[in-house]
């Protein structure tokens, strides 16, 4: 697979560790905006989960363009919560890219030469309920949280593999970026528990992938200030003043601490795509994707009006527990990501207390520095996975 980073440094952390009825999925051969027949197999559909299958999860599945019969299956989340799988499909690792310079009714689509579907079977999923084209048949079903996200996705995976038995023996990986780091760890643990208990259908879980993941909410937010200072986004005098006046805590700010509040306001003022919406709300696009009529009045790439509750603020223990399992893991992050600073990612990975097997060094793509390998880690002694 070709990996390329043209304008940002990518830091790699590698952990090597010992009342609708559900309709069949639809094969999509043409998409508005793309000229010709799609050169890959695309499938869309809904899978019902939850009580009475009232929650209908929309997803896209792209077969590997290399050897789908043996290539791994990767379920990919997008953060938010509330951002559609189309975000990754068009702007991260999917088989198509969207041309931002377009004229006409909808954006033009072109092949992504670096899409992960060249070597992976990819499932893009609109989670949690209310995201993208996923919907609930009842109003109560729209209320969700991190725990339900995990339960619904586990049910989704079981049903998806029942519907796609030919992929049952393929290695399964689960991954995602940003906010989805808070649910990926708990989900992987649940899938792994089912795997070692030999629950049917057997989900052949082999590992997980995280992209700038939210894992420890407090440190993710608190380290933004240090990151902003190191990136010269705020001056040294402001950073030193914030450390002193806020006592190093930039999350739980006392409103009566006027000096800290003033510093934080100065910090906040110092920094800080509608394309997919246009495309996905086009009537011809909805028909091509076999979107159920009447289920979504308007598609939003990131739905910020979800009835969603974050009930897991720190999931480091899940990732620590997964180091006891016979799973592989890849964690990568950008040095220009302000939402989840790489400093926070380094912090929780180092807290796993694993043995360091490689040093900080550059890695290259086509003779150019594409990023740096930070930590290659492995547990040397046998560990016991805790159910």
UniProtKB/TrEMBL annotation:
Signal peptide start-end: 1-24
Read off the Pfam families from this record: Peptidase_S10 (PF00450)
Any one Gene Ontology BP term = secondary metabolic process
Top-level taxon: Eukaryota
Entry's Gene3D superfamilies? alpha/beta hydrolase
The protein in question is named Serine carboxypeptidase-like 18
Organism expressing this protein natively:
Lupinus angustifolius
Q: Which InterPro entries match?
A: AB_hydrolase_fold, Peptidase_S10
Q: Is this entry keyworded Signal? A: yes
| GO function terms (MF aspect) | acyltransferase activity, transferring groups other than amino-acyl groups; serine-type carboxypeptidase activity
Going by the UniProt record, its keywords in alphabetical order are: Signal
């Amino acid at each position: 697979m070709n990996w390329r980073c043209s304008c940002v440094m990518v830091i790699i952390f590698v952990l090597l560790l010992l009342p609708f009825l559900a309709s069949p999925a639809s094969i999509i051969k043409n998409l508005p905006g793309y000229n010709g027949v799609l050169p890959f197999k695309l499938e869309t559909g809904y899978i019902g989960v939850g009580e009475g299958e009232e929650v209908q999860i929309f997803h896209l599945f792209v077969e590997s363009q290399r050897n789908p019969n043996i290539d791994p299956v990767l379920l990919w989340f997008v953060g938010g919560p509330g951002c559609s799988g189309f975000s990754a499909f068009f702007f991260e690792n999917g088989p198509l890219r969207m041309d931002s310079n377009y004229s006409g009714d909808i954006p033009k689509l072109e092949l992504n030469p670096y899409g992960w579907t060249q070597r992976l079977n990819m499932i893009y999923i609109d989670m949690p309920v209310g995201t993208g084209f996923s919907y609930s048949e009842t109003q109560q079903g729209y209320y969700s949280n991190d725990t339900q996200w995990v339960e619904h996705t586990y049910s989704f995976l079981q049903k998806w593999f029942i519907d796609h038995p030919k992929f049952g023996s393929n290695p399964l990986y689960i991954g995602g970026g940003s906010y989805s780091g808070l649910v990926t760890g708990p989900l992987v643990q649940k899938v792994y528990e089912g795997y070692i208990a030999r629950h049917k259908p057997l989900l052949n879980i082999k590992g997980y992938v995280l992209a700038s993941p939210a894992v420890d909410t407090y440190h993710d937010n608190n380290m933004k200030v240090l990151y902003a200072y190191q990136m010269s986004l705020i001056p040294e005098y402001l950073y030193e003043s914030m450390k002193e006046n806020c006592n190093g805590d930039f999350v739980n700010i006392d409103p009566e601490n006027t000096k800290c509040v003033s510093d934080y306001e100065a910090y906040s003022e110092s920094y800080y795509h509608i394309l997919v919406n246009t495309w996905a709300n086009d009537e011809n696009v909805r028909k091509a994707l076999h979107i159920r009529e009447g289920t979504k009045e308007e598609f939003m790439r990131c739905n910020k009006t979800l009835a969603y509750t974050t009930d897991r603020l720190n999931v480091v223990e899940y990732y620590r527990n997964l180091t006891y399992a016979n799973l592989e893991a890849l964690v990568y992050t950008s040095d220009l990501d302000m939402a989840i600073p790489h400093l926070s990612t380094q912090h929780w990975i180092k807290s796993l207390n694993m043995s360091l097997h490689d040093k900080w060094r550059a890695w290259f793509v086509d003779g150019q520095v594409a990023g740096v390998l930070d930590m290659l880690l492995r547990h040397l002694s046998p560990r016991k996975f805790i159910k």
